[in-house]
Each structure stands twice: as C-alpha cells, then as structure tokens.
Amino acid sequence: xxxxxxxxxxxxxxxxxxxxxxxxxxxxxxxxxxxxxxxxxxxxxxxxxxxxxxxxxxxxxxxxxxxxxxxxxxxxxxxxxxxxxxxxxxxxxxxxxxxxxxxxxxxxxxxxxxxxxxxxxxxxxxxxxxxxxxxxxxxxxxxxxxxxxxxxxxxxxxxxxxxxxxxxxxxxxxxxxxxxxxxxxxxxxxxxxxxxxxxxxxxxxxxxxxxxxxxxxxxxxxxxxxxxxxxxxxxxxxxxxxxxxxxxxxxxxxxxxxxxxxxxxxxxxxxxxxxxxxxxx
Length: 281
Prior knowledge:
The protein is of the alpha/beta class. The protein has 9 helices and 9 strands. The chain is globular, with a radius of gyration of 20 Å.
C-alpha cells in the first residue's frame, strides 16, 4: 500500500534526503519549501508521486493551502514530518526578543499549525503518523544554544502529550533527535544574535559561527537518517523518541546517567518535602 508523506523544509539537508528516499521507494510525497523552486526538480524526477508546494509554516493560509493541495492530489496525508526550522545561537542574555519569537514561531508554533491541519483527516481515518524533528541539543543544552534547546524541548514535550492523546485513535506521534549531520544546519540554516557579550567568550562565544569549525565535518549521513526515519514510521510500534547518530546516542546516555546520579544524590532532600503521612505512614 502506498503511503503519502507531507514533509516540511525539503530544500536541503535532512528534509531533502527524506523526500528523495520516500519518493524513490514509490511512496507519494508533498515536498515543501518556502521557495518552491528549490524542490521543483523533485517533481520532474518523480512526476507521478511528487507534489511541490510553497510553504512557510508561519503563514496560516499557506499551511491550510498545502494541506488541502496534498489531500486533493493524493487522497489523504498518512505521515506528516515537521522538519522545517533553523538554529539560533546566543547566550541567553544576548538573545534578541524578536529573534527568539521568530525562532519559536517557526520551530514550534509552525509545527503545531501543521499538526492541527492534518489531524482531522487522520482522526477520520483512524490512522496516521506525526514525526517531529527535534535535536540532541534538547537533551545536552549546550552553552550558546539555550533558546534552540528551549524550542526543541517544547516540541518534544508537546509530542509526548500528543502521542498519548492520539494513540487511542490509531495515530502515532514520534520525536526524532539527530546528532550532527552533514547538512547546512550549521551553515546557511544557523543564525545568531547580533550582540556578543565578552563575558561569554569562553562559553557561548566558542559556538558562534565565526568560532565553530564543525560545519562540514559532522559524522551523520542524511541519507541514512532518512532510511532510519522511514523504518521507524513503518514499524508496527514506532518509538516515542528516535535518536540518530552515534554522537547523539553517547550524549543522550551521558545525560541520562548524570540525571540519575543527581536524582539519587538529592533523593533525601526531594523526599522530605511531602506532608507528614502523605507517604502512607
């Protein structure tokens, strides 16, 4: 049975790789980008099963139009992948309010808008999958990425609750946490604050674009990430969280170990806050 995907942010990187993998396997895909010309080549290569759509996820009218066009062309949307987004680096004190608002409008509220647009159809069919692309940054919270970690943490928290809400309706929701992948994320897709405060030079400052040499050296292969996402979505029991990359696996495990150790270290203080007798004594 052919599956229909709607993927946001397909011009480059993981979104592009996923669109190509989905189309190559014969599935249908509505491939979207703010500049539709960036994905029109896919419709030429896969004329029978690709639909190129202009989509800015912060524009409610474009969200509605893209969802409607994909449904009219393919009959239904089986899988939504919220991939559109970008990075933002700044020490928390350096962050510009307007920049931060735009970051959340795109990376979080844009994803929410897409979810709300496709859920009525999925609920009617009692089937579907929603995939929200997060980042290992939501777990490791690097200096200089406080706002990005916050927006991805918000996305993950929402996804966790959504998963429980839609599971009885035959729908699954999953977050994906990639590590470093060889994409434009740390290049063209990465923004930063205009202000740089000298006191943060040795923390957030080291991760400003002019000081960060990692772009182009990331270990992850976007094509292999795409195959992993397809495998997870196609599984009878998709995971709540799919971690991508050995770097992300190691970082995630280290965070969990540190959290467990700290939880135990402070257990006595934490447990002492209940009202007398509340523990059943």
